[in-house]
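User: Can you help me understand a structure? I only have the sequence.
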Amino acid sequence: MKNIKFKKKKKLSASAIAVICIIATALIVAAVFVGIKLAADSSKPEVPETYTFSSEGFESISEIRSLNEEMAVFTDYSSGKKGLMTLGGEITEKAEHNGFSVISDTWRNYRYIAESPRSEYLLLVDADTKTVTSRQYHGLKSPELIPCWEEKVRHLAWTDKTGYAGEVKTSEVTLSPGLYPVANSLKEDAKYGYVSHILRLEIALMYEKAMDFSDELAAVKKDGKWGYINENGVTVIPFEFDSCAYADAMADDCSFSFRNGLAPVCKNGKFGIINKKGETVVDFIFMSIIQGENGVYLALKDGKWGKITVKKEYLPVETTAAPSSGSQGGSEVIARGTYRIKTAGSVLNMRSEAHAQATVVAKIPNGTVLNVTKSVPGWAYAKYNSFSGWVSSDFLVAAPDAAAETTAEAVSTTV
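Assistant: Let's start by predicting it. Here is the structure, written out as tokens:
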């Protein structure tokens, strides 16, 4: 039998053993860390998804800009032509025009025009249907006279390029009850405040820019940042937002107003959406968000346009004042006839449609008598001054012997 020789195993050096121990320790520590992290993550409450974003149907669109707070201009990716769409993304005018713009030929009288191959002249846009008409526009592209607050004489004054051009009379302008932004001059460094519908200065000239009130709040600019104030001039949301000029064609420097309790805002170059408490509802991850309605917004993310939809459970619930005694009741259909507005002293919103999320077209003072011509459950249709729309029948009391009338003052808003 042959002798079998066994090779002696080499002993590991002390340094090798030390390296193995270090590696083993590191692996154990890593495993423990991963285990702890997984346990911690599993114990964290899930962050609720408050909205969705989809670019489906927007593949051929290279750019969207709002024309006003009802419609937007979109650009076709291949042709470069422009068309119109609703703020919900529904196309109302095909992309076959060269451009769209806003004209204010008199104070607060906005017209929307199209540069179109259909005509050598500018064509008017129908703001209701959001389509280009065959009507030509030959008017002014900017008003010759603009009201500014004249501090020396303490009244609203017509102002032109040379300066003061006479006092603005209440009979010369038609304003529904509310507050309206005005500046103290036409210069770039002008200060802005707000006047009432009777042309009295209500909020001091202390802002760099000011937008219209909506949902009882207005965007104002101070020290280079935008914030929001209420109708008493109190800052409700701090000045911490940037201009959203990229998204809006109506102004070079602006911020969006609240609609349905939400507003798009820009912070550190990114857009998101906040509620009236200043809380974030849509994350600040978008390159642009355009003013929307009922929780739907057009937005740009990662170079693609699409639609944000805020989930219903995260939409603010619009509060309304309790019905006054003698009201008709929100579920009833009231008869045609004469009714008096009866609130707790607040004004009553007249809306474009018969629901609480519709656009406010006028604010009607308490005590005003209206002639109701038609109604649906909870809502009545009437005229007020030059406005027509729907008001909540909860705040109407039958007044068959009353004549139509209006009151001058109002301090808050109902419905």
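Now, to help you interpret it: The two ends are 109 Å apart (CA to CA). The chain is about 5% helix and 45% strand. Let me know which part you'd like to focus on.
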